[in-house]
């Protein structure tokens, strides 16, 4: 019976391993299909060809999203789950960016800034696809063995653990080990003290606590040596007091660093919540004012650097590995999207009458604003962990939120069947693409106020707004809004007679 049980267990294990390999192969195959279509999209020369290939690309991305979403839910390692969520978020947002950036490049083929903008999107999508494969296959296909940099939080945790273990065994660690850990920890605080954005008062406070940590560690070392010299078998009272003081000062250092990082992030979110640089950039680009675009681009670049550094500081105090990964994702996102916004606004400034260039800029600005919202949620998570309020598990910050066109990854709650969800996601993509096609054709009309032009724009806008309503997104919030949109706003004949679609029309 024991032999039979072992054989059964072995057979079940083989089946599970085989099933896992099949899932991995499906994801890899799906990724390869997406990469091939991406290459075709990058080489298209006409808008008609782009529309055809992008429709295929959308279907493949929907399939890839379902496969990776299921895999993400099955992952047990929280770090891998966070990395997968970050990679899928990049693909989700970049799909829309790829649409508008490619359209802009096709509309203005000789514009260098449009080409730079498009190339950056394609590059980021390929990196995200590669990251997904690295996670599911547990490999480093590009030779990049990404190891998270040591955070101050981890250093503090390891240091306290080493100090407290002296209570149980005075001979557990060599003296040099604890002193070395302390010096390495103090050295990492230079990310805070060397920052040009850290105030003089904050810098002095951090340095003061670091000095206190050194003093308490030295006193601990002295008491430790005395206890060992006396051949003590357990921690003496002097050692116990020194341990308590050292742990207290190291906890004070964590509190001070947390206060600085979270305080700076909160201040930045308040300032950036007004979106003044983005508004100024949009206005300057629409006016074709290249000098103003250059000036406000410098302002945005400075804000980007502040946000990137703040994400780095939050990484040090985040308190958990999944949140550390989310901090790195936020840092990379700000670092990439900042220059993309600038290249998009440069294109608009060179072609101020281009609706496609304007739409493209809007998409990148929305991605920036979305990342600011993610940063606010991240801040709340970090505070919760610091204060010991973990509560119910929240969804990963990089998953889709209302207010975005989630072509591939949105959870369609109006349907319970996965096949129906896939169909609706594909229809949403096609609808968005057709709306873009309408906008492109409309730009060719010399008389922009012509009735046909206005009606086609209204119909396209109405259809897409209704689609967003079915997903709980967009400007329409209630059923009454939906009926009002259908009966009054977009379908009214410009000459003021009956709505289009009336039985006698």
Description:
- InterPro entries: Alpha-catenin/vinculin-like_sf (IPR036723), Alpha_catenin (IPR001033), CTNNAL1 (IPR030045), Vinculin/catenin (IPR006077).
- GO terms for molecular function: actin filament binding; cadherin binding.
- Belongs to the vinculin/alpha-catenin family.
- The structure is a single chain.
- The protein is an all-alpha fold.
- It folds into 3 domains: 1-147 and 274-387, Four Helix Bundle (Hemerythrin (Met), subunit A), CATH 1.20.120; 152-261, Nucleotidyltransferases  domain 2 (Four Helix Bundle (Hemerythrin (Met), subunit A), Up-down Bundle); 418-442 and 452-485, no CATH class.
- The chain is built from 16 helices and no strands.
- It has helices spanning 2-43, 47-74, 78-107, 112-137, 152-164, 175-188, 190-193, 200-229, 237-272, 276-287, 290-317, 321-350, 355-386, 418-443, 451-470, 479-487.
- Helix 5 (152-164) runs antiparallel to helix 9 (237-272).
- The radius of gyration is 28 Å and the shape is flat.
How does the SSE layout of this entry go?
Blueprint: H1 2-43, H2 47-74, H3 78-107, H4 112-137, H5 152-164, H6 175-188, H7 190-193, H8 200-229, H9 237-272, H10 276-287, H11 290-317, H12 321-350, H13 355-386, H14 418-443, H15 451-470, H16 479-487
Helix pairs in contact: 1-2, 1-4, 2-3, 2-14, 3-4, 3-12, 3-13, 4-12, 5-6, 5-9, 6-8, 8-9, 9-11, 9-13, 10-11, 10-12, 10-13, 11-12, 12-13, 14-15
Subcellular location: Cytoplasm
Family: Belongs to the vinculin/alpha-catenin family.
GO molecular function, one term: cadherin binding
